[in-house]
Amino acid sequence: MVVLQKTLGFFLKKISSVIFPPICLHCEKEMKDNHSLFCDSCLELLTLCDLPKNSHTTYLFEKIGPALTLYSCFANGSQVLFSKTIAAYMMVQISRMAWPDFHCILNPSKSFAMRDLARELSCFLHATVVRVPKKGAVHLLILPEINEEILRQKKEDSTSKIFGIGIFRNKNSG
Ligand SMILES: [Zn+2]
């Protein structure tokens, strides 16, 4: 896991080095040695949440600090880089779960940001993006916020297998 996190940190620095000024996106601290999205201290706070492997849902971060800044930038859809970054974090989190291979990315949202994210994930996972579940296929439902209750509701009107990943956990229901 440490290796994955380090690789991700390296990746974040690389992909953002051309586009971003040397100022941390979250704390706005000047960065001398590299042009990353976040300074080293903020990058350390972007730690993926730990969840049991037998769960059917997972999420990336608690809704605070640099994660919330990253989400705000992602949600306003100004740069495809933010979708790429969140997709990379999702791939790391998915690799930690004991989940099967996915046939489809289930994206119910019409927002540009979520569409970008679905597209990025579909490349990583070699899966098709769909708006409604396909019969007999294994789906990865993506939402900004998720929990088991939301997944249960999605499963009720479908016979397909659905696993769910959110950027954050939805705390309102269950
Ligand atoms: Zn910072």
Can you characterise this structure?
This protein has one domain (2-169). It has a 5-stranded parallel beta sheet, with helices on both faces. Helices cover 41% and strands 16% of the residues. The mean pLDDT is 87. Helix 3 (65-75) packs across helix 4 (80-96) and helix 4 crosses helix 5. The chain has 6 helices and 5 strands, in the order ααβααβαββαβ. With 174 residues, the chain is α/β, with parallel strands linked by helices. The protein has helices at residues 2-16, 40-45, 65-75, 80-96, 112-125, 148-156; strands spanning 57-59, 104-106, 128-130, 138-146, 161-169. Zinc ion binds next to helix 2.
- State the end-to-end distance: 28 Å
| Annotation, overall tally of beta strands | 5
Radius of gyration: 16 Å
Main sheet: which strands, in order across?
1-5-4-2-3
Number of structurally distinct domains: 1
- Strand proportion, as a percent range, falls in 15-25%
Average pLDDT works out at: 87
Instruction: Kindly name the structural category.
Output: alpha/beta
Topology:
Layout: H1 2-16, H2 40-45, E1 57-59, H3 65-75, H4 80-96, E2 104-106, H5 112-125, E3 128-130, E4 138-146, H6 148-156, E5 161-169
Parallel strand pairs: 1-5, 2-3, 2-4, 4-5
Bound molecules: zinc ion.
Features:
174 residues, alpha/beta, five-stranded parallel β-sheet, 6 helices, binds zinc ion
